[in-house]
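W.,

You were right to be curious about this one. When I first looked at the sequence I had no strong expectations either way, so I just let the prediction run and decided to look at it fresh. Below is the sequence, 583 residues in total, followed by the output.
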Amino acid sequence: MDKKIGNIFRLCMVLLVGQGIFTKGLRVVVQNSQQQQISQAEIGIPFLVQLFVDDFEPREQPKGIEQAQNCTVQMYGTTQSSNYINGKQSQRIIFTYVVTPDKKGSLELGPITVVGQDGSEVSTDKIIIPVGDIAEPEYKVKQPYALVTDVDQKSVYLGQKVTIFLRFCYTQGFEGLSIENNPIRGAHFGYQEQNWQQSTITLGEHEYSCKQIYFEIYPQELGTLVIPQFKATFMPEQNQQQGMGNLFSLFGFSNAKMIQSYPRGIEVKPLPTTSQYQGVTAIGQFHKISFTLNQKKGQVGEGLAAKMVVEGDGNLEVVKAPGLFVPDGLRFYEGNSSMQRIDEHLAKKTFEWILQADAPGTYIIPAQQFIYFDPSSASYQVLHSESARLTVEGVAQQAGPVEEHRDTQALSQPEEIVLPSPVSDEVTYVHTTGLPSKVGKQESFSDFLGWLIIVLLLAMVLIFIGWLLRPYLLQIFFIQSLQYRWLFWKYCRRNDIQAVYQLFEQLGIRYGFGLQSPELQQCFRDLNLSDDVFENWKNFVEMLLEFNFASKKSEEDVMLAFNLAKQWFPIILSCCKLLYKKR
């Protein structure tokens, strides 16, 4: 590989020199980690970029190199020196950066700009560095220690599970082994084995004993996924046998040794497109699914737990819940999922839902399906579960708030007025709506009684008119919202979180939306609320579901639920108003 692109690199360097990279007091040097000038860069191998600034005092850090793409750039440090030649002072500042390429091709850095104390600027031209493939390491000479990174597959599909093996190889004893964890860009970290396993390995023509750990990742970006260099720090056996080494350790000095692994590359390709299956996230070999209900009988409005268990070897850790198929009359809310790892090649994942029925009857839940992509055959496969039978008893839910209707009727009944005896001339109290009014003598009482009769007649007329117009008044959304606001206030006042959840359910039934349905999501969008806000609402609904069916709840959790409910209630009422106008 060095011969293939070395000439290209030298040509680029000649062009850069001709464009003035060494002028204006700036000079750029590209070196490897051993500070040796390199003729090329490789994917995943860090190299150094040093910017020499001569006789120019910068006001701030140089700008431009941190904006480079297809690589990571880290500031390593700054050094400064002064020299006197023939009585004239010469000053030099060196800025050092560590650059790690992510992709093959031409890596462009800069231009790098330096601003002086007086505001003047000097800049380099663009720096172009060829980047080649990750080269395979050579083990011609047997070393006492080596750190090796291996992958179980060199080409995978987007989201497919990849197992990374990290092996510390040795022919001599050691102590105090530690591995520095490195992040892997463009991948999700999964299971990590914490216990070292003993094994043997052949590197080149040499046999090594090794300690091995492994971890799993799931690629999230297409292209070349770079497994970076890992570092191992340890105390070699030979240093432990030297008396001077032990003496140094008493004073805080260490003879620890550090070695690095070579980076590895994994090609990540997209799943084959198909019109039959869309949005498939499961990749691997799966052999069984099951779908069960926690009970076969229930009541209208009762929350019934359903779960699907998937078994196999694949990327279950990042698989999303499959679509659930239910008959008309059943609603469902997605719950939690849990992962059970059996061994390195077998796991189970459980997906949960809460089902609710609006009307009594017998419901046949059809066989569920789990679609996955099998990389061994490069084809999509489907697993089917058994169907389930559910019997629901009770009374169908009404299209309006039942409790609200009862309370409204109670409020519409006039209170009984107990009139005092006209014979008595003593001070008497007349109770109307719970408030006492004092009456003096017989004449005052007669005037009061006349006004009271007039007020009662007017009240009865207004009540009668209201009773006649009640069906029409209740069709006004403002009146409806007042009723629901009063109910919400009452439930919050008595700390009834289950009633709050049922009130949200009543709103959904009355205005024709599910609490997690696309219709409600569209209302959020019409209110200029983002999909992230709707996801937060769905999380709140799941919280209410847990409260609705849980037997024990902490006081802090209850207060949190009420505070969130007070924030969400006006938004849901606004959504109800939008749907009301569309009728």
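Here's what jumped out at me. Residues 2-132 form a domain with the Immunoglobulin-like fold (CATH 2.60.40). And, maybe more interesting for your project: Residues 1-23, 240-253, 399-441 have pLDDT under 50 and may be disordered.

Coffee later to discuss?

I.
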